[in-house]
Amino acid sequence: MSAPQFDPASYDAQLEEKKQRLISLLAPFNAPAPDVFDSPREHYRLRAEFRLWREGNERFYAMFAAGDKRTPILIEDFPIASQRINDLMPRVKAAWQANEALNFKLFQAEFLTTLAGDALITLCYHRPLDEHWQNAAQQLANELGVSLIGRSRGQRLVIGRDHVIEELEVNGRSFSYRQPEGAFTQPNGRVNQKMLNWAFDALGERQDDLLELYCGNGNFTLPLATRVRKVLATEISKSSVNAALANLADNQVDNVTLVRLSAEELTEALNEVRPFRRLAGIDLKSYDFGTVFVDPPRAGMDPDTCELTRRFERILYISCNPQTLADNIEQLSDTHRIERCAVFDQFPYTHHMESGVLLVRK
């Protein structure tokens, strides 16, 4: 993990720079002024991972400057991480220092927390984990009130749960999310909640159906499903699909059909290029899609998926890369215009930014 440039005094200026960058990228498309959603200045990141660096008989949490893997920056606390992570870090360090079963050949520690206060710690080793490790890890998990996972080559030992539970409020309703270890989750919980509320408002109350591509663990699916008649959602990651199905059941959201297909595969299915067994029993023609919601990876939508979205009246697009967002909008600009846009500062003190647009047919 690379060391961030933590400087709260510069926060307002860096957020303004991100706003202006999005305005500049969307200027060719006559975009309205963006809504701007800021982040807490510290303790905003809900997950963190650290390599461990040994000096003498002691191991330290460590990070490295970009491009330098040999000069560790030793970490005692981590102000961008949640308060829960900062509270756990010294206690976990004291535990491995005091117990050889926890300490021997330990090389990485990962923390996953939630706004709701849940926590999961993963300890990674260059050795097989035995009964001595399990006993020590069970005692540590009990003392800290956390779940704990031990990983080594070919091993994954779970003490407690292999996921955390998050609670996020959208338009006055609380949604519960299982967030599995190792699966993607939004790192900035406060800003994620703002993104969900913005998308919920931008979608509006609809009498038709929603197609969602790249649905992940159902982060957006749960609240958006309450705004439409029914949802067809796709995701390729098996762990994310399993988490999304559990989240739909936990929240009693029953108008969503989830299929494990990539966006490219669904494009082929909707274009009737070829059938998919995973769509057996799903009548695609029964859907009256009015809006497509996309939250693609940094590469954005591929050209064919972008063309697929063109057929929809409304495109609700959350992006983690404003350049590929602008590239996709360029492809769609002859048929759609930007009605709303927003900046979400998921990643303070970095150049990364999250943005959103609502495109409607001209």
From TrEMBL:
Protein EC: 2.1.1.35
GO biological process terms, semicolon-separated: tRNA methylation
InterPro entries: MeTrfase_TrmA_AS, MeTrfase_TrmA_CS, SAM-dependent_MTases_sf, TrmA_MeTrfase, U5_MeTrfase_fam
Pfam families: tRNA_U5-meth_tr
Family to which the UniProt record says this protein belongs: Belongs to the class I-like SAM-binding methyltransferase superfamily. RNA M5U methyltransferase family. TrmA subfamily.
Known function: Dual-specificity methyltransferase that catalyzes the formation of 5-methyluridine at position 54 (m5U54) in all tRNAs, and that of position 341 (m5U341) in tmRNA (transfer-mRNA).
Protein name: tRNA/tmRNA (uracil-C(5))-methyltransferase
